[in-house]
Every structure is written in C-alpha cells, then in structure tokens.
Design brief:
With about 120 residues, the protein is mainly alpha-helical. The protein is about 60% helix and about 10% strand. It has helices at about 10-20, 45-65, 70-105; strands spanning about 25-30, 35-40. A two-stranded antiparallel ribbon has the order 1-2.
Length: about 120
C-alpha cells in the first residue's frame, strides 16, 4: 500500500518566529555574573533592561536567602518572574474586559430609539 506523506504545514507563528530569527543580531550581556551572547531582534538597550530585571530578581532572592544555591536561586527567580508576568497578564485581560463593558454600555441602543445617545 502506498502512503502519501504530507508536508508539515507551518503555522503563521512559526513563520513569524523564523523571520525574526533571520533578522536578529548578536548582543552581549551579563546575567548572574555570566557573560552571554544572545541572538535577538531586540536592541541592546532592551536586552540590558531584561538582564537588569533578571539580575535584580536574583539579587533580591540571594539577599533574602544567603544559603540558597545558585540553581535554586535561578529556579525561584524564574518562578517569581513567571508569577509577575501571569498577574500582569490577568490584570491586563481584566482591564480590557472592563473597558469593553463600558464601551458596550455607551453604545447600547435604547428600546424604541435607533440612535445612540452619543453625538459627535
């Protein structure tokens, strides 16, 4: 029996990522005392800001827990940053939902009236 092999379909997200990698640049930074060469589409200033956030979080953890291992500090730092990201993302979605509700209320058509109460 002959099998037909299908070509994998690239998602738009994957294609976008491949385009970004193609246009990326090599940027030097330092995280936790380790010099790194990162390939990124971001500029040096953005990479430095990201590195400062990670370094700040690691310093915060090692200052609070002097006996913590480097590996555990990295894991705890990653969890802390993931928590920050998740909370900000939830808050952003809630803010968007609130704005949508207010916009909907502003544009509601009242019974018997085909026009909104908003005028320009």
């Amino acid at each position: 029996m002959n099998e037909i092999k299908k070509q994998p379909v690239k998602s738009e997200q994957l294609e976008h990522r491949e385009q970004k990698v193609a246009s990326s640049q090599l940027i030097e930074t330092e995280i936790a005392g380790l010099k790194l060469s990162l390939r990124s589409t971001h500029d040096k200033q953005t990479i430095d800001q990201l590195s400062a956030i990670v370094n700040g979080k690691l310093k915060e953890i090692t200052d609070a827990h002097s006996e913590i291992s480097f590996q555990n500090a990295l894991i705890l730092g990653a969890l802390n940053l993931a928590e920050d990201y998740l909370m900000l993302r939830k808050q952003a979605y809630q803010d968007i939902s609130n704005i949508e509700e207010k916009a909907k209320a502003l544009f509601e058509v009242h019974p018997g009236n085909s026009k909104s109460h908003i005028s320009v």
